[in-house]
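Quick one:
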Amino acid sequence: MPTVASLSIGKNYLVSNAKLDSSNRYLDQIKSASNYSKKLDKSFEEISKNDGIAFIFLDPSETHLQLLHHGQILGGNWSSPTKHMVAVLGSNIHAKPIQIVEKPIKNVKEKSFTIEEYADSLEDINSFMSMKNPKIEFLYKNIIAILNFVIKSFIQLEDTSNSPSKA
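Output:
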C-alpha cells in the first residue's frame, strides 16, 4: 500500500485530512439520505453538505469504479434557477470537475450479503470469493455514498476495474 508521502496532492488531502473522518460516524444518516425512494438531486444535496463523504459508481463503459468527491449543488437561485449536481471525478493529477446527469442513475434492487458476512471474509480472499447466496435486499441507486474510511481504501487501490484480480 502506498505511503501518504507517495500519494498525489489530491489523494494526500483525502487520506490525511482528519476533518473528513467525521463522516465515519454517520452511516445511518447516509443510508437514510440514500434511500431508494428519494430523488437523486434531493439525496445528493443532503449528502454533499457533509464533509468526508464521496460517491462511487461504475463508469459508463462498465469497466472501472470511479470516485466522485466534494459534491456541490450549483444554481437554484434567482439568477440561475436550475440546479446542477457537480463533483470532482478522481483524485490524481487528472481529476476534473464534472456535472452529474440524473438520467443514467437508476434504482437498484438486488440481493446482497450482510455487513457481517463481508467483514468475516475480509481477511481471506478465498473466503470472500466463495461467498454464495446473498440474503438481504439492496435497495439503493447505482451511485453509492461512501464514508471516509472507504474513500481512503478506494483511492489507494492500484486497480478499480471490475475484472477478476490476477493475484
